[in-house]
Amino acid sequence: MSADREKQTRVLAVSNQKGGVGKTTTAINLGTALAAIGEKVLIVDMDPQGNASTGLGVPRETRRATIYDVIVDGRPIDQSAVETAVPGLFIVPADADMSGVEIELSQADRRSYRLRDALAAQGGNGHTRYDYVLIDCPPSLNLLTLNAMAAADAVLVPLQCEFFALEGLTQLMRTIDMVKQSLNPALEIQGLVLTMYDRRNALSGQVAADVRSHFGDKVYDSVIPRNVRVSEAPSFGKPVLIYDLKCTGSQAYLKLARELVARERQRRQALAA
Ligand code: ADP
Ligand code: MG
């Protein structure tokens, strides 16, 4: 394999400043789907609510090391990641400690680069462990989100197909521009994924059309439908692909994973050409 085709880690911040748009659901299930097609994946739970951790079956009482230890105490990522029930899918969990990070790091060096530095340290020795790192961001623009965007190669944006979707997006695009001008000039937009799409609802179709006309081929062809199995799965501590592989939600996340990998391959080929 030539050097430029060698596998590199792609770090993606799953972000949108709106809450409830499917960030955590996408991090969990896209992560699972990527692992299912042979990619090695790390999910970094950056939300103090710890929903990605719970949804992947890492109960609070078992979270010995968390992203807090990484960000605040400089604990190596490797020592903080746990393998989930999905082979090839790892997570650095979060818990409520994370809500104090802003204050604890107020005097720290490189306070916005704590995650970036931790990821760079674990990828050392010329040995890259993960194909994808998915960072599940909190719904606000705080130091945790800035750490995620400073660490990321690109932002993956879940968009709920509802009326205020575009309004939230304007805000997110402003944040991304701000981060590019300050913390991370190389930050890209990986893609936008439409979530909770309801084909019986005319508004869903209208929002999808509007988003596609604004963002063109940055929007994935794969669309995640609203599917009750997707919302049930976290209460069992399982990704929907494990809970019910055949349901429309699982199949949509598999399709999205294949599309993301195919586009990523194209992007790398274009860079190498
Ligand atoms: P965020 O992380 O952006 O706040 P979540 O991923 O937690 O959003 O999703 C918000 C709510 O919507 C959750 O209750 C989740 O189970 C539900 N949900 C997300 N995606 C779907 C879907 N495709 N179908 C049905 N419910 C969904
Ligand atoms: Mg969330």
UniProtKB/TrEMBL annotation:
Q: Which CDD domains does the record associate with it? A: ParAB_family
One of the Pfam families matching this protein, by short name: AAA_31
Q: What keywords tag this UniProt record? A: ATP-binding, Chromosome partition, Nucleotide-binding
Any single GO BP term: chromosome segregation
GO molecular function list: ATP binding
Report the residue ranges that make up the AAA domain in this protein: 10-189
| Top-level division of the source organism's lineage | Bacteria
Its job:
Involved in chromosome partition. Localize to both poles of the predivisional cell following completion of DNA replication.
Q: What is this protein called?
A: Chromosome partitioning protein ParA
Source organism per entry reads Brevundimonas bullata
